[in-house]
Design brief:
Number of strands: 11
Strand content: over 45%
Number of helices: 0
Shape: globular
Largest sheet: 7 strands, mixed
Distance between the termini: 40 Å
Helix content: under 10%
Structural class: mainly beta
């Protein structure tokens, strides 16, 4: 079965960096679009970034453009999110997503979600 396992979250200071990873299994990773989404306390889920199966794109929400970088290693079945210049408003539970026939930015269309990894940005 499809499994997505995020890691790499933690506590960072404003201006700091974190690198999230998502280990995928149970499907042919190289054939699927992948995205990151996040949910801050008391807010809805926000799509953050996405990348197509061949690595094309990638695409970012305006809130993270220029600070976050998504990448994938199809040989390792792993998705990454490098987060630089972190801000307190980046504090959220971050999810790895995949699906078939999805519209990249529409989180409700994704079929599979990981359990999430918590990112907290605070001094």
């Amino acid at each position: 079965q499809v499994e997505l396992v995020e890691s790499g979250g933690g506590l960072a200071q404003p201006g700091g960096s974190l690198r999230l990873s998502c280990a995928a299994s149970g499907f042919t990773f190289s054939n699927y679009v992948m995205s990151w989404a996040r949910q801050a306390p008391g807010k809805g889920v926000e799509w953050v970034s996405g990348i197509y199966s061949d690595g094309s794109g990638p695409y970012y929400a305006d809130s993270v453009k220029g600070r976050f970088t998504i990448s994938r290693d199809n040989a390792k079945n792993t998705l990454y999110l490098q987060m630089n210049n972190l801000k307190p408003e980046d504090t959220a539970l971050y999810y790895c997503l995949t699906g078939v026939g999805v519209s990249l930015r529409q989180v409700h269309e994704y079929d599979y979600w990981g359990q999430g990894t918590q990112v907290t940005v605070s001094s």
